């Protein structure tokens, strides 16, 4: 039995020549170059992504600080004996603009833009309208 397996193995053995060895070496080198290039590209993507995330986080922190300052100025103006209506209006407008920036940077959607999905009812195969057919009088 072992002798038969050896004879079959000899039948399927591949012959290595200098031509196909050169071809396989070139394929292996190309494969290594491609793997290296893909790894470099992935690393570059991660660096850019982390820089973008870092920038967004710093910008969000600055906008939130400005929101706090505008709120404090608004409350200080409201506490005055005679608050300046124009100043209150400008502070309210600034607060609205900053709040919009903060909403966008923090990734919250506009109110009402995400609608809940309702489960779909399966259509009845018996009638095109989906209503149950009337029983036949027999």
What is the SS-derived class? mainly alpha
Question: How would you sum up the global shape?
Answer: elongated
Distance between the termini: 77 Å
Calculate the mean pLDDT score and round it.
80
Helix proportion = 55-70%
Radius of gyration: 36 Å
By DSSP (H or I, 4+ residues per run), the number of helices equals 3
Q: Could you tell me the strand content as a percent range?
A: under 5%
Spans of 5+ residues with little confidence (pLDDT < 50)?
none
Can you put this structure into words, describing what you see?
The protein has about 140 residues and is mostly helical. It has a domain at about 20-105. Helices cover about 70% and strands about 0% of the residues. The protein is built from three helices and no strands. Helix 2 (about 20-80) runs antiparallel to helix 3. The longest helix has about 60 residues, at about 20-80. The protein is elongated and about 105 Å long. The termini are far apart. The mean pLDDT is about 80.
């Amino acid at each position: 039995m072992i002798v038969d397996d050896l004879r079959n193995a000899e039948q399927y053995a591949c012959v290595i020549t200098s031509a196909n060895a050169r071809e396989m070496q070139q394929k292996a080198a190309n494969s290594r170059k491609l793997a290296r290039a893909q790894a470099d590209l992935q690393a570059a993507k991660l660096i850019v992504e982390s820089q973008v995330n870092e920038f967004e986080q710093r910008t969000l922190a600055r906008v939130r600080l400005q929101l706090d300052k505008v709120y404090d100025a608004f409350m200080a103006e409201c506490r005055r004996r005679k608050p300046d209506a124009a100043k209150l209006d400008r502070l309210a407008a600034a607060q609205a603009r900053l709040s919009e920036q903060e909403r966008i940077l923090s990734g919250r959607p506009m109110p009402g833009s995400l609608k809940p999905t309702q489960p779909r009812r399966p259509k009845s195969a018996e009638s095109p309208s989906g209503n149950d057919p009337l029983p036949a009088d027999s």
